[in-house]
Backbone:
C-alpha cells in the first residue's frame, strides 16, 4: 500500500487548523457581551431598575435611550432635546458609577466597564410619556468595530487556509488514486504469447480518461489572495464625528467648578499661523491638549467638553480638538458662537505679559 503523498497531509493539516481557527474566533465573538442590556423603558417621570446584567469585556460602554421617534413621528412630541434623565450603576451590589446632567438628550454618557454583574437605576426627570408609543428602549452597548476589525483579518486568513487546504487535499487525492490504480494491460486471452508480441508494447499506454485539470484548483486560491488584499486596503468612507450643537447659555451655570463642562476655545492667531488653544481660559499647546483634557476630566463626574472656534480658524483645527475629546470618551458640544472677547483678551494678555505660559 503506497504512502499518502505530502500534499494530502499538508492539505489535511491546513484545512483542520483553518477550520478550528475560524470556528473558534466566531464562537469567541458570539460569547462577548457587546450589548449587555437592551430593554423597553417608559419615558414617563419616575425610576426604572433594569435588574442584573452581565459584562465580560473591559471596555467603555455607552448608555442610550432609543426612542424610535422616526417610526411613529409625532410632530407634537419631538424626541430631540426632550428627555432628561440620570442614572446610578451598581456592580455586585455596590455603587460603581453615576451620571447626572441637566442637558436634555437621549445619549446618557457611559462608563468604563469591567467583568461582573451590574444593575442600572434610571430616573427619568422629564415628563416625556408622549414618546412611549415609539416603544423606547434602554440600551447599554460597547463599540463592536474594534473587535470586528481585530478578528476580521484572522477570519479571512482562515478562509484562505480552508481554500488552500481543500485544493491541496484534492490534488493529493487525485495523485494518490493514480498511483494505486493497477497498470496491467491484457493483450490476449491465450495462455502463451508468441514471439511476435514481445516487441508489441514498449512505451507506457496513455490513460483512458484525462484527469481533472489542476489549474482551476490552484488558480482560485492564488487569485483569492490579491483580491483579499484589495478588499482590505480599499479606502473607507468617512462618517465624521458625532457631536452635539449647543448654544451658549443653554446649560445652567453651576456653583461647583468641577461640575461644569471643560471649555476648549480655538482662537485665531493670524494668517498662516497655528491657532491658539485655551482650556478653561488657560493657554495650552497643541501637543499638550490631550493630557490637559485628561487631567481636567478625571476629576469630574460627568465628562463633557464644549468647543468654541473662531470663524477664521481652519475647520480642521476644530475637528482635531473634537477628535481628541472623543478619543477620551467625552461628550462633545460644539458651540455655535465664536470665542468670547474676554477669552481672547485673556489669551493676548497671557502671551504678552509672559506671566502665564502654555501648559
Residues:
Amino acid at each position: 500500500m503506497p504512502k499518502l503523498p505530502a500534499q494530502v497531509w499538508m492539505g489535511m493539516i491546513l484545512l483542520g487548523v483553518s477550520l478550528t481557527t475560524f470556528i473558534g474566533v466566531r464562537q469567541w465573538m458570539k460569547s462577548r457581551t457587546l450589548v449587555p442590556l437592551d430593554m423597553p423603558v417608559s419615558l414617563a417621570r419616575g425610576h426604572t431598575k433594569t435588574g442584573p446584567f452581565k459584562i465580560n469585556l473591559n471596555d467603555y460602554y455607552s448608555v442610550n435611550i432609543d426612542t424610535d421617534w422616526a417610526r411613529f413621528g409625532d410632530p407634537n412630541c419631538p424626541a430631540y432635546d426632550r428627555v432628561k434623565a440620570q442614572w446610578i450603576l451598581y456592580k455586585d451590589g455596590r455603587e460603581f458609577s453615576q451620571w447626572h446632567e441637566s442637558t436634555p438628550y437621549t445619549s446618557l454618557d457611559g462608563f468604563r466597564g469591567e467583568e461582573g454583574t451590574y444593575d442600572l437605576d434610571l430616573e427619568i426627570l422629564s415628563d416625556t410619556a408622549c414618546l412611549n408609543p415609539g416603544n423606547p428602549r434602554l440600551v447599554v452597548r460597547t463599540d463592536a468595530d474594534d473587535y470586528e476589525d481585530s478578528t476580521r483579518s484572522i477570519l479571512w486568513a482562515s478562509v484562505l487556509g480552508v481554500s488552500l487546504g481543500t485544493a491541496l487535499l484534492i490534488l493529493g487525492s487525485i495523485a494518490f488514486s493514480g498511483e494505486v490504480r493497477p497498470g496491467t494491460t491484457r493483450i490476449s486471452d491465450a495462455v502463451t504469447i508468441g514471439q511476435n508480441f514481445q516487441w508489441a508494447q514498449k512505451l507506457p499506454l496513455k490513460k483512458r480518461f484525462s484527469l481533472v485539470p489542476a489549474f482551476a484548483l490552484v488558480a482560485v486560491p492564488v487569485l483569492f489572495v490579491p483580491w483579499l488584499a484589495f478588499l482590505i486596503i480599499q479606502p473607507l468612507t468617512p462618517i465624521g464625528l458625532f457631536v452635539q450643537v449647543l448654544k451658549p447659555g443653554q446649560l445652567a451655570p453651576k456653583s461647583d467648578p468641577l461640575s461644569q463642562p471643560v471649555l476648549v476655545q480655538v482662537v485665531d492667531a493670524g494668517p498662516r499661523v497655528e491657532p491658539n488653544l485655551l482650556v478653561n481660559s488657560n493657554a495650552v499647546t497643541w501637543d499638550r491638549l490631550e493630557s490637559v483634557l485628561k487631567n481636567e476630566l478625571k476629576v469630574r463626574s460627568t465628562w463633557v467638553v464644549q468647543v468654541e472656534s473662531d470663524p477664521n480658524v481652519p475647520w480642521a483645527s476644530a475637528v482635531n480638538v473634537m477628535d481628541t475629546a472623543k478619543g477620551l470618551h467625552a461628550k462633545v458640544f460644539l458651540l455655535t458662537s465664536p470665542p468670547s472677547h474676554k477669552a481672547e483678551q485673556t489669551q493676548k494678555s497671557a502671551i504678552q505679559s509672559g506671566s502665564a505660559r502654555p501648559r
User: Anything to note?
Assistant: Helices lie at 6-31, 69-72, 145-180, 215-233, 289-297, 315-327, 341-353. Residues 18 and 41 are 44 Å apart (CA to CA).
